[in-house]
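Hi everyone,

Forwarding the result from last night's run.
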Amino acid sequence: MNKSLFLILLLSLLVVSACTNEKTQTLEKFYKDAKIENVDKVIIQDGATGFTKTITNQEQIGEFLSLIKDIEFTPQNNQEEREGWRYGIAIVDGEKEFKFTLSEIDSTYYDSSPDIYPIVDHYYKQLEIEER
């Protein structure tokens, strides 16, 4: 009886640890793992309005990526599904796209350090000013 209880506990622990197997990594690592090498477009979508800003200028793409590429994403303990998001971003390399929101990458919720929101929010608003 004790052996079977121990086995059940061990298997339960393995299942739980397999579900939270994600680790802290930089945003650049995520998009490089997705085989994004030569970014030719970045699309930022405002989750509140649905409006999008598309960046195709290589200098602006480089500037934006340099602001966010070293941000570290750490999986949150609470992986319960949520509704809504502040900004969604697509990093595009030809036909390949890496899409994420500020707190979700590949169906896993993350905290970012430093916080990615003020960086993206400022950049998005700067693009709005430049369009006028």
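DSSP finds four helices and eight strands in the chain.

Cheers,
N.
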